[in-house]
TrEMBL record:
GO terms for cellular component: Golgi cisterna membrane. It comes from Salmo salar. Residues 77-108 form a coiled coil. One of its GO terms (biological process) is chondroitin sulfate proteoglycan biosynthetic process. Keywords: Coiled coil, Glycoprotein, Golgi apparatus, Membrane, Metal-binding, Signal-anchor, Transferase, Transmembrane, Transmembrane helix. It is a single-pass type II membrane protein. The chain crosses the membrane at residues 12-37. SUPFAM superfamilies: Nucleotide-diphospho-sugar transferases. Belongs to the chondroitin N-acetylgalactosaminyltransferase family. Its EC number is 2.4.1.-. The lineage of its organism: Eukaryota, Metazoa, Chordata, Craniata, Vertebrata. This is Hexosyltransferase. PANTHER family: CHONDROITIN SULFATE N-ACETYLGALACTOSAMINYLTRANSFERASE 1, CHONDROITIN SYNTHASE. Signal peptide: none annotated.
Length: 542
């Protein structure tokens, strides 16, 4: 029995085992078949797989996806951290090398001045401190006392495509495209930064703004102080016709630093234009024509003060002013008559002090043979600030127009003369007569010296007083201020050295080097032409 039951048990076990094996094999076969038949094609795109996975078991699918992208990010971060670490290491190595060579230089006593600060290991904040120090040393936010007019670093002015420069030598031009690529990149780069600032996120509480584009850029001023850095003052059109944006940047031989971003509303900045005058009624008529066009028809925020010396032609001048007043309803004229010998400084002084209205006023000292445009009035307003800045533009002096066009008649109109070109004129960088400054500054600095007599010298004295003061002197070429040519008389009574200087100025104001050369070599040129003609004729005969 016992053996029978064990046998049965064994048989049963064997059966179960056999059935199990068969079931297993069948299972395997089935799943193999299933895999072969229903496996998704291998070209399934990742995206479809995602959808598919999501569709089948959405929660798990998404979790898996999340996990996957998290992993990718972790990898990315790891690799970036590794790169940063490598860069840091390289930087440290370089710094060490630099320090070592600086130490060596110091030991030899040849360390360049100003580099002492670099001996310490530099950190980012140190550099920022250094840049800030450079900015505060540079003449950007406040004026600096200068010994003389030769210490002034003038600005260059620039527009989108042009640079207006004073330093030309004999070959460069008063206005040029920036030829060098680094110069071009520097200017456009700064402009781009300015546009980013203007279009950047609004500051708290600011009104809605429009977006700014390069075409809103009016003009920039730039200059480099060799031991501090470069400053840029950029002027953009603002919200309205008399509204402007002024941005100031500083580049301390490092990245550009923003110094100022201000809205300037010029609507209430009245300009009192002061013109000292004696005789020259015809030139005055020409001046009033321009004044009418620029100040009365386009502007409406000006006053004209004429200080007239003597009695000759005064009736004509009065008549011109009365007529203009009648025809335009413009009432902001003042005519002051002095029975004295003409003195420009005295005239400006009297004109400036005559302003009786309570508030301060912006003065523009002007001559009767000066031609200015609407843009000039704007730059006058933007470059002068009471107690802070006075504007000393360098004007463009026109050559004798009858020489420019090689005896081409008729005489070119004034509009045709107003071009900034090498053969048309030059930057009168030795003149300090035209200036924009607030009356308060003029009074505080003591006005013109009573003792300096004659033409021209009193300007330089006033200019020097501003240089010695804490006020900032903005000296830059102005593309909207012209000195029109007129014949220069060198008086017989002048001392020989003064007479010589007068003749030199006369020559300089008459024509360009090239045109004067044509005059000088007239005979040679004539002979050349005649020889050519002969040659032509003889070749014709053959
Ligand atoms: C005339 O001068 C006054 C200030 O004295 C000024 O408010 C006004 O705008 C000026 N008018 C014109 C047309 O310039
Ligand atoms: C000589 O002839 C050439 C062309 O044949 C002409 O361009 C040139 O002006 C002539 N020169 C003179 C002096 O006539």
């Amino acid at each position: 029995m016992c053996s029978e039951s064990t046998m049965l048990r064994r048989w049963l076990l064997a059966l179960v085992a056999r059935v199990g094996v068969i079931a297993l094999v069948v299972c395997c076969c089935l799943s193999l078949l299933y895999l072969l038949a229903c496996k998704p094609p291998s070209s399934y795109s990742h995206e479809q797989a995602q959808v598919w996975a999501g569709g089948a078991t959405s929660k798990e699918g998404y979790l898996a996806l999340l996990q996957e992208s998290e992993d990718t990010h972790r990898h990315y971060i790891n690799s970036l951290s590794k790169q940063i670490a490598q860069l840091k290491e390289a930087l440290q190595m370089r710094t060490q090398q630099l320090q070592e060579s600086l130490e060596k230089a110091r030991a030899k006593g040849v360390l360049p001045m100003g580099l002492e600060g670099l001996r310490r290991p530099q950190t980012h904040t140190d550099l920022q401190e250094f840049f800030k120090a450079q900015l505060s040393r540079a003449e950007v936010q406040s004026g600096e006392k200068l010994p003389s007019e030769y210490a002034v670093i003038p600005f260059e002015s620039f527009t989108l495509h042009r640079v207006y420069q004073l330093e030309m030598g004999l070959t460069r031009h008063p206005e040029e495209r920036p030829v060098r690529k680094d110069r071009r990149d520097e200017l456009t780069g700064t402009l781009e930064i300015a546009l980013q600032v203007l279009n950047g996120p609004r500051r708290h509480g600011e009104r809605r703004r429009r977006s700014y584009s390069p075409s809103d850029f009016i003009e920039g001023l730039t200059r480099t102080e060799r031991d501090k850095g470069t400053v840029y003052e950029l002027m953009f059109k603002g919200e309205g016709p008399q509204d402007f944006r002024q941005l100031v940047f500083f580049r301390p031989f490092g990245p550009v630093v923003r110094v100022k971003n201000e809205r300037v509303d010029t609507r209430h900045m009245l300009i009192n234009i002061i013109v000292p005058l004696s005789r020259r009624a015809d030139t005055f008529r020409q001046f009033i024509n321009n004044f009418r066009k620029v100040c009365i028809q386009q502007e409406g925020k000006t006053h004209l003060t004429v200080v007239y010396f003597g009695r000759d032609q005064i009736e004509e001048v009065k008549a011109i002013m009365d007529q203009t007043s009648r025809e335009t309803q413009f009432r902001n004229f003042t005519l002051i008559q002095l029975n004295e010998e003409f003195s420009r400084g005295r005239g400006l002084e009297v004109g400036a002090r005559a302003w009786r209205r309570s508030h301060n006023v912006l003065l523009f000292f002007c001559d009767v043979d000066i031609h200015f445009t609407l843009d000039f009035l704007t730059s006058c307003r933007l470059n002068a600030e009471p107690g802070k800045k006075v504007f000393y533009p360098v004007l463009f002096s026109q050559y004798n127009p009858s020489l420019i066009d090689n005896n081409q008649s008729p005489f070119p109109s004034i509009q045709q003369q107003l071009v900034i070109m090498k053969d048309a004129g030059f930057w009168r960088d030795f003149g300090f007569g035209m200036t924009c400054q607030y009356r308060s500054d003029f009074i505080n600095i003591g006005g013109f010296d009573r003792n300096t007599k004659g033409w021209g010298l009193e300007d330089v004295h006033l200019y020097r007083k501003y240089l010695h003061s804490k006020l900032m002197v903005i000296r830059s070429p102005s593309r909207s201020l012209f000195h029109l040519w007129h014949e220069k008389q060198c008086a017989d009574e002048l001392q020989p050295d003064k007479y010589k200087m007068c003749m030199q100025t006369k020559a300089m104001s008459e024509a360009s080097h090239g045109h004067l050369g044509e005059l000088f070599f007239t005979q040679e040129i004539q002979e050349h032409l005649e020889r050519q003609k002969l040659l032509n004729d003889s070749s014709h005969l053959r």
